[in-house]
Amino acid sequence: MDTAHLRLAVDAARAGAAELMSRRDHRVVKEKGPKDLVTDADLASQKAIRDMLVGAYPDYAFVGEEEGENDPPANVRAGDPDAPPCWVVDPLDGTINFVHRLQSFAVSIGLYAAGKMRLGVIYDPTRDEMFTAIDGQGAHCNDQKMSASGCTAIDESLIACSFRAG
Fold this sequence. Notes:
This protein has 166 residues and is an alpha+beta fold. It has one domain (3-156): Fructose-1,6-Bisphosphatase, subunit A, domain 1 (Fructose-1,6-Bisphosphatase, Chain A, domain 1). It is 28% helix and 30% strand. It has helices at 3-22, 40-56, 74-77, 95-99; strands spanning 29-33, 36-39, 61-64, 86-93, 106-113, 116-124, 129-134, 139-141, 144-145. Helix 1 (3-22) packs antiparallel against helix 2 (40-56).
């Protein structure tokens, strides 16, 4: 994948995030299942992202978390090298945090092709942080190259994780 795909994914993430932020104070929340929430913001964000990505690449597959679009075509699932590339989208990664007005949520977009993830974008609209990566080209935050700390000892490192309640 190339920078044109990455620029499109970045623009789509910003469009999705704009939908999230416009509904942050006035959202409609429903349960998809026990402890599995969806908001009107999730749906609007996915639509904005889908419209941009599919509009630019109509022959690519699209998998989104919402509205029954979460099952990739069989040839994509099988890693068939002739399968079309597939956009993989979580329009609101961190719905519980969003519903509770916490700042830890993001828009996540990936492009899967020929059996592996080729690029990824994660945008945190509350901090205006855009994380991007293209397979084999490293990762960036707001266009600044990221690198590992070089820490090799577990007792000198910081590890953080989150566990779902209940």
